[in-house]
Amino acid sequence: MDRFDAMAVLLAVVEAGSLSAAARRLRAPLTTVSRKVAELERHLGTQLLVRSNRRVVLTDAGQAYVAATRRILEQVEEAERQAAGEYRAPRGELHVTAPMLFGQRHLLPVALAFLAEQPEITLRLMLADQQVSLADEHIDVALRIGHLADSALVATRVGTVRRVICASPAYLARRGVPLMPEDLARHDGINFQGFAASPEWRYRRDSHSVMEAKPRLAVNTTEAAIQAALAGVGIVRLLSYQVAEEVKDGRLRVVLEAFAPEPLPVSLVYAPAEILPLKVRSFLDFTIPRLRARMAEMEGGL
């Protein structure tokens, strides 16, 4: 039995919540995952997991063993990184995550330029509008939009984005331009939920409750919401970077700007460490000034 491999499989089962979910994450047969956990239990002479059809629960012995396993594997991974020279030269695999559209339009061009300068670094860029755990997904750097809930992370602000209400010129010509938040009640709306926890919308210069346009269409992707707004379906509420190109070329028009909430911070975040691997430090040093310049240009053009 490869003890380290079995420990890694056990940790994957616990983090995924079930044997089958761990098998999918590890891209391994379910029988292999189950066998390795069973071999580990036989080796230890104790039961670590209580299995059911849907989920697994750690026994008391399992809880203590998994906590120790996590520490051991982290120490092994750290030792391997040092042996591979990540602290002496920028090399190795770098894991980065960002919101989908922001990543495509702004982070990806910067990341490609970074790769051109760092031939010994490979990049895994995970684009998703749902926030992912840096620890669970082994993420080195994350781009986050909004106020950060996890104070344990180190954050460097690269800019801000605004929450905007916009519609096509054709729609506004047909239905009129809302001048006050209360006017939205007479308009058609495009409902869009782009993040798992969307920031609360509170109008400035207005003490009333949040006013919404009458729902005409509901979608679950940024692209669909933008396309519907361009087609004149109604008014949509998005983040400024998501419609920067459409607003700049006049295909969408921002309304009620004076009432918009305060801008949201955009930050690069990472886990604290006494010494950052050079691949992370070099990525931050390269990316931060370039993202700041891109965001200043984008917001200045709106």
In short:
It is built from nine helices and twelve strands. The protein is α/β, with parallel strands linked by helices and 302 residues long. It has a five-stranded mixed beta sheet, covered by helices on one side. A five-stranded mixed beta sheet has the order 9-8-10-7-11.
How would you explain this protein's 3D organization?
This protein is α/β, with parallel strands linked by helices. The protein has 3 domains: 3-84, Winged helix-like DNA-binding domain superfamily/Winged helix DNA-binding domain (Arc Repressor Mutant, subunit A), CATH 1.10.10; 92-161 and 264-300, D-Maltodextrin-Binding Protein, domain 2, CATH 3.40.190.10; 163-259, Periplasmic binding protein-like II (D-Maltodextrin-Binding Protein, domain 2), CATH 3.40.190.10. Helix content is 41%, strand content 21%. The protein has 9 helices and 12 strands. The strands form 3 sheets. Strands 4-3-5-12-6 form a 5-stranded mixed sheet, with helices on one face. A hairpin with a 4-residue loop joins strand 1 and strand 2. Helix 2 (19-26) packs across helix 3 and helix 5 packs across helix 9. The longest helix is centred in the first third of the chain and has 25 residues, at 60-84. The radius of gyration is 24 Å and the shape is globular. It starts with a helix and ends with a helix. Belongs to the LysR transcriptional regulatory family. InterPro entries: LysR-type_TF_proteobact-type, LysR_HTH_N, LysR_subst-bd, WH-like_DNA-bd_sf, WH_DNA-bd_sf. It comes from Teichococcus aerophilus.
